[in-house]
Amino acid sequence: MRTVICKSLLTTFAFAVMFCTDSTLSMSAKEVAEKKPHVILIVADDLGWSDVSWNNPNVVMPHMDTLAKNGVILNQSYVQPTCTPTRAALLTGRYPFKLGLQKAVIAATEPAGLSVHVDILPQLLKKVNYETHAIGKWHLGFCSWDYTPTKRGFDSFYGFYTGAADYYTHKRSTSVKLPEDKARRDHDGGFLDLRNNTTPDDTKDGVYSTHLFASVAEDIVRSRKPQDPLFMYLAFQSVHSPIQVPQNYSQVYEHIQDQDRRNYLGMVTAMDEAIGRLVTALKETGHYNNSVIIFTTDNGGSVKNSGSNWPLRGEKSSLWEGGVRGVAFIHSPFLPNPGTVTNQLHHATDWFRTIIDITGGPTAEVDGVSQWDAFAGVSGPPRDKMIYNMYDLEGFKAGVRLGDYKMLIGRMTRNSWASSPPSADSPVQGRHKASHKIRRQAWPKRRLPAIFLAKKNKELTGGETPLNDTYESFFSEPIINKFNDFDILKEDSSEDFTPRNRRVFRKNKGKGRKDKEQHILWRDLKNHPDLVWHAEELQILEQHMEDKNRIRLFNIKDDPEERNSLSTTKIHELQAMFNYLFTQLQYMKSIPANVKVKAGHPVNWNDVWSPGWCQATF
User: Which of these is catalytic: 38, 133, 139, 255?
Assistant: First the structure.
């Protein structure tokens, strides 16, 4: 793997705009658009920074590893802290705070959805004759049929509307309470959430969803002509909770002591195998040579569900790097520089603009910028600033990026370094008991996984070693030959998927060395004698900021783990970032009240999660 050659073109406030070149002939986005490439946008759910092979060599994912290392790996690709906001950014090219979707996910019984007044990616691609298909997780609202995929430009949809479900039964429960005469049938694990277009599909009970979605994607590719342009949005359920996977996959990681982590990584390997099947179908049907494959997670890993963002700070649902710095790559025969790792700044909205650019789609006023020419080495990086997120609910919170500097405003939660290092996943030749002293030698104190602080965990895996015979023998033939796509759970396997001891996790989370960050209060920054504020700007900022709002500043290039805040010494940089924030505040929409209504309860809809109980007015 090689890193693209970069030359500094222009140095401005504390950062350099870099121009990256490669000796191979490059194709601009306009030239690629003339070929009408097939675009495959793959989204993983809750996949952490250290849950992929290019950041953690102990993760077994040969198919994605090949795609990533023969494409362009994005080292600074930013997503939103949770599911719904990222999916909105991907499909609209707009910051979620401009859509009112910036705070959290859309609940299953919440009468809300992605605004129907905004054209999303498949609707625009239909205008340039693309065939469009959505597979997997939607999570952008379904209370009205107008919010659902086949009403939003997708020719077909096979998947589920809500945020999570059982991987085998495809059911999810609900927290909405009903009168006793209607409270029925939630005893069997929930209500069906699986659809073939608009029709509920209750025939796949026992079929693992990762296998199911791979089969649907394969069937689409194999049943069409490669001459017709294709856009496929494949949003896997993996690796969101519940932690469920066929035992055949988790046994690859039998050396890992933590059972939940073992099953979690098995889910990653199962997803990798599914992607391998899709790529094989693309190659065998003549699609691959005219294709662009994009892979991204929707947010950082969830530590309580065994995800790992090591060595980054924070996790899913936070604005720390561990929550928003997502794993991503782009792979295409049109890219001239396979094996590139790029550090150029990238935001989830940029995928929208990039896809529009390389397909010749109609232009739209969005926040995303096209990154293709930068990936291909024909231009410099187009982005040097972005808004991580911002919302004004129970206190103003925001994350702002300008060059290498990142500013965080407000009270930040999930702020520990709780993820396990890659050595916790490495295979060992034998198992041994370990004293607390040995544990500290194996993992530096500041990165000691919280779960290993519990007295119950007495065993410890050893240090880094090469892959052992278990891996080699298991992957001596393709995984697809080893398993049936429609494996049915024949026995009660609940013991294989025992939830992590959350009480122990909560007790120990965040223990160990504390960060040395400093912060400055808003009242001190606005009154600083060395700063001059414009009256109008200060007036607007004061509508959102409180005197005691904490402000932190990190240099992400020098301090990617966010350990040393510079907010008390870099006041001019902070003011510049507030100037940028001011330009975006006027576009922030209020967050609708998180109301859950009984009309959306599945008992009112033949025990199926269904649309039809709200109007798409948002």
Answer: 139
